[in-house]
Amino acid sequence: MMRLDGFGLFVKDMGKMIRFYRDVLGFEIKEGEDTSNVYLVKDGTLFLLYGRNDFENMTSRKYEYIKGLNGHFEIALYVDTFEEVDKAYADAVSKGAVSVLAPEDEPWGQRTCYIADPEGNLIEIGSFNRPFER
User: Which one of 8, 11, 57, 73 is most buried, by most CB atoms within 10 A?
Assistant: First the structure.
């Protein structure tokens, strides 16, 4: 049986992406900004940053990369309260995250917002105003 282990981003500018996920979102990345591979287990989920050139060399292929905002997927982050959504959004934007959608209440009972990382990947910060449950 296969299990979801985590996810990875193939990145163009490793230093910029490390600074974003470490300094803006608070991920505990220990690798230096000149690394070619970040391997981080956060909240039981693998989070990988892998250099595009290294991946292309490994697979002996070239890939297409979207420029600007990437509407193919999102990274979803959860906080326990509606107030924390607003605080996390304001904090991330004040540190340089691109605002995509300011916090708003959705008809399904969630308060959510969206930001983007420096390479245009969408990140949702949301809550159902209760502690996280798996």
Answer: 11
